Amino acid sequence: MRQTVRQRIRPLGSGQKEGHRAESLSATELAFIGIGGIIGAGFFLGSGLAIRTAGPAVLLAFVLGAFITAQVTGSLTSMAINSPQEGSFKAYADAYLGQFVGFLQGWLYYLSSILTISSEAVAAAIFTQMWIPNVPLWAMAAVYALLVLLINAFGIQNFGRVESLMSTVKIAALVGFIVYAGILLFSGGVPAGVPSTGNPSHVSVFTQFRSQPFFPTGFNGLMQSMLIVVFTYAGIGVFGTAAGKAKNNQAIERGATWTVLSLAFLYITAIFLVMTLEPWSNLGTSASPFVIALQNTGMPLIVTLFNGVILVAAFSVMAGSIFSANQILVSLADEQEAPRFIRRKGPGGGQTWALAITTGAIAIALLVSNLLPENVYNFLISASSFGALFNWLVILASFLRWRRQTRQAFVSKLAFGQPISTILTMILIVTLAGYALFQHDQRLGFYAFVSISAGIVILYLLVRKRLTLKTPPSN
């Protein structure tokens, strides 16, 4: 007889020894996977839309996004340390919020990951057009998706190594951008030896930033930019699914802390420097705001190199999203909420069937996106962001229920102020979702999210009789 979730989710002291996990990732690898799963086209390209929406006030949006991410990651880390699970947050939703919520969260997260992968593939193709403008976007997007699928086919160990390498490249590039832009900031113009392009920003980049109103689009602009900012942080789910494969509890906590702190510093500093090099009103999603800012410094080689790095960034997020999506899909199959054959492994021990299903889903998403209007990127990230907000709400709600039952358990430092901060974060998430409906593309993304959710609900009603009843833990 299949065990209930109540029987399967248990603390480490209940027969599961910490430090003896078959497949293991170190704190460094966890942090790199977390950063690698988050820093991608959503930041290097999508941040341009957030800047255009809020102006300099977007800096507050990224601070707020870091706070929400810390609360979500802290909640997830706390549960993962005390009760490591394959499928991670999906298993906790099953246990503490019930079968229906777990079913809905699992499938929404999986389909949101597919949308994320598609948006990153489209963005990668846009970056590539800088060098080969005549190649169709859909063709390049398909090539990048295929390459990243092949990387995932090699298994967890190779995934960790490749993702760590790509994350290193992205972090080094961001640090390099910060250093280079910092030189411009504190020198009051172009460094010695750099030819001037005649751009007014070369007179004094800091003076240019100070001359811009901080809230040019008002409070509403700030709040409406948050959905895009959420997308830049949304890949934190990759860390959640990878945490179950950590070497030990210390690795999970350290990896989570370094991931959130590193992202907050890199995001806020880099966005500030972008706006010192280029007026916020000139930015959008037609090209990376970082590339636009660098073009005005008169260093074409740096522009080319950075464009290559953000291409790697998009590629990296695709790899992380596929890994995370496969983990959730296998978890759904384990719970008989997806076809059982998906959990079968191939000759090399990899998740062959899960990868095959994901490949088909990505192909469909890319085909559909090719038929949509030119603003397809904005639409994809908006729809995916609503899925991320729902996922975060469920994680926070699961944490609150878990905390009431395990008051003596370890709680991550990232969940500071809980449970009050947890409740406030949930209220904030709902508020942000409401503000997003005032923008056209984001409203269309919401309609897509609602349609997908309705389809999952219908699927649950059709299959629930075949599912074994899951009993939530008693208080």
Outline the structure in words.
The chain has about 475 residues and is mainly alpha-helical. The protein has one domain (about 25-465): Amino acid/polyamine transporter I, CATH 1.20.1740. About 70% of the residues lie in helices and about 0% in strands. It has 19 helices and no strands.
Task: Quickly list its features.
mainly alpha, Amino acid/polyamine transporter I, 70% helix
Walk me through the topology.
Blueprint: H1 5-8, H2 27-38, H3 41-44, H4 47-54, H5 58-82, H6 89-97, H7 99-128, H8 137-152, H9 156-187, H10 205-210, H11 218-233, H12 236-243, H13 249-277, H14 289-295, H15 300-334, H16 352-371, H17 376-405, H18 420-436, H19 440-463
Helix pairs in contact: 2-9, 2-12, 2-13, 2-15, 4-11, 5-11, 5-12, 5-13, 5-17, 5-18, 6-7, 6-17, 7-8, 7-15, 7-16, 7-17, 7-19, 8-15, 8-16, 9-13, 9-15, 11-17, 11-18, 12-15, 14-15, 17-18, 17-19
Second CATH tier, the architecture: Up-down Bundle
- Topology-level CATH name: Amino acid/polyamine transporter I
Distance between the termini: 24 Å
Class derived from helix and strand content: mainly alpha
Q: How many distinct folded domains?
A: 1
Instruction: Please tally the β strands and state the result.
Output: 0
- Mean pLDDT over the residues: 79
Specify the helix fraction band: 55-70%
Provide a brief overview of the structure:
With 475 residues, this protein is an all-alpha fold. The chain contains 19 helices and no strands.
